[in-house]
Specification:
Organism: Tetracentron sinense (Spur-leaf)
Distance between the termini: 38 Å
Largest sheet: none
Helix content: over 70%
Number of domains: 1
Pfam family, one: RPN2_N
Keywords: Repeat
Structural class: mainly alpha
Protein name: 26S proteasome non-ATPase regulatory subunit 1/RPN2 N-terminal domain-containing protein
GO biological process, one term: proteasome-mediated ubiquitin-dependent protein catabolic process
Order of helices and strands: HHHHH
Length: 106
């Protein structure tokens, strides 16, 4: 079973990385959900960011609630580092900003 899941993740990640594949966002969403159910929230969030509008912030599920909480924590942490730093800080991923903004708009 673990080998099947690993194969699914690798195939889906390959599809997401293929810029000619027209369902890249769907592949990213699938990989995000697999990582979520494996307990890998960082990888799950990273792939959810790649799924664009297919990651439905209005969906009432543990998956979405968990990733929104993770996204908000990540966003707040990055913004806090920027505010505390006198040096040029790492820019917040615009995809992360977009998810937080979509969540606040719902």
């Amino acid at each position: 079973m673990e080998i099947l899941i690993l194969h699914l993740v690798l195939c889906s990640e390959s599809l997401y990385e293929d810029e000619e594949f027209d369902q890249r966002q769907l592949a990213a969403l699938l990989v995000s959900k697999v990582f979520y159910y494996l307990g890998e929230l960082n990888d799950s969030l990273s792939n959810a960011l790649g799924s664009g509008p297919l990651f439905d912030v209005a969906e009432d599920s543990d998956y979405v609630h968990s990733l929104l909480a993770k996204a908000i924590d990540e966003y707040a942490s990055l913004e806090s580092k920027v505010a505390e730093s006198n040096e040029a800080a790492e820019k917040v991923d615009p995809r992360l900003e977009a998810i937080v903004e979509r969540m606040l708009d719902k």
